[in-house]
């Protein structure tokens, strides 16, 4: 039996991924998301669709470090074979998490960073496991001011999203080095521009233009899930620290390949969670 732990599995490529992996009744899936009603509905639909009752849901606001910590330490969670960090959002107006961290950075980067480190601290990720981080091609064209990770000087919602996806790649690079002795592979991926509910949390004008772009430019959710499923199904599990696109390792920006940047981001991120470890 394989145990899957996925954040943001109630819609989009996360939901679609669960739909595929749960068809194998030897797989158990735990979905983490912030919306309780949406989570319950997703589980009910997925159980009916796959005939697999080993699909469960826990509610957590992953933008909150404290709440993420509570999730891991206050629940009985199985030992994980595959961890999929997928939950993310874009905020065109500046918002803050419970810890007063800019919310795009808090959810899209610190959500991955916190939950992975808490799971590792509790020894809930098996040796030889896989950690898969959903990044994005949106990381191209930006770098990160490591002295202003939360864009306190000048906030722009789209740039904040792009920078958070760059963080996902840098996080992948550094974590892969730390876990190599345990034979845990850590990879990230660009799913493509996928037609989902992404961005629907914003004002009408932003939703309108995003919806228009998705209508004419986006790929369908099955196509967008292919690279994620490729990484899940890779039996060799001997590639780590890579950025995947269209089911194969692909180039990413020069900033995202610099291990000094990865190291600095890790150190700054660790400062935010160390009191909870």
Which bin fits the share of residues in helices? 40-55%
Please outline the major beta sheet: 8 strands, mixed
Radius of gyration over C-alpha positions, nearest whole angstrom:
17 Å
Q: What's the architecture in CATH terms?
A: 3-Layer(aba) Sandwich
> How many structural domains?
1
What structural class do you assign from the helix and strand content? alpha/beta
| Average predicted local confidence, pLDDT | 92
The 3D shape can be described as: globular
Find the CATH superfamily: NAD(P)-binding Rossmann-like Domain
Share of residues in strands: 15-25%
Spatial order of the strands forming the largest sheet: 3-2-1-4-5-6-7-8
SSE series: EHEHEHEHEHEHHEEHH
The gist of it:
With 277 residues, the chain is of the alpha/beta class.
């Amino acid at each position: 039996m394989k145990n899957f732990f996925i954040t943001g599995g109630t819609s989009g490529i996360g939901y679609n991924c669960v739909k595929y992996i749960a068809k194998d009744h030897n797989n158990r899936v735990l979905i983490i998301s912030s919306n309780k009603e949406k989570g319950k509905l997703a589980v009910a639909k997925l159980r009916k669709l796959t005939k697999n009752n080993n699909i469960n849901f826990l509610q957590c606001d992953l933008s909150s470090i404290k709440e993420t910590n509570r999730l891991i330490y206050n629940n009985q969670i199985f030992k994980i074979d595959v961890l999929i960090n997928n939950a993310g959002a874009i905020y065109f107006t500046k918002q803050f998490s419970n810890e007063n961290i800019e919310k795009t950075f808090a959810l899209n980067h610190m959500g991955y960073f916190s939950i992975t480190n808490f799971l590792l601290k509790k020894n809930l990720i098996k040796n030889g496991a896989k950690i898969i981080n959903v990044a994005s091609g949106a990381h191209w064209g930006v770098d990160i001011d490591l002295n202003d990770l939360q864009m306190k000087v000048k906030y722009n919602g789209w740039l904040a999203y792009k920078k958070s996806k760059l963080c996902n790649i840098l996080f992948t690079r550094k974590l892969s080095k730390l876990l190599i002795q345990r034979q845990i592979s850590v990879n990230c991926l660009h799913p493509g521009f996928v037609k989902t509910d992404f961005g629907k949390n914003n004002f009408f004008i932003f939703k309108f233009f995003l919806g228009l772009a998705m209508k004419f430019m986006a790929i369908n959710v099955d196509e967008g899930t292919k690279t994620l499923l490729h990484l899940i199904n890779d039996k060799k599990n001997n590639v780590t620290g890579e950025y995947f696109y269209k089911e194969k390792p692909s180039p990413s920006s020069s900033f995202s390949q610099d291990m000094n940047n990865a190291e600095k981001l890790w150190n700054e991120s660790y400062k935010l969670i160390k009191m909870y470890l």
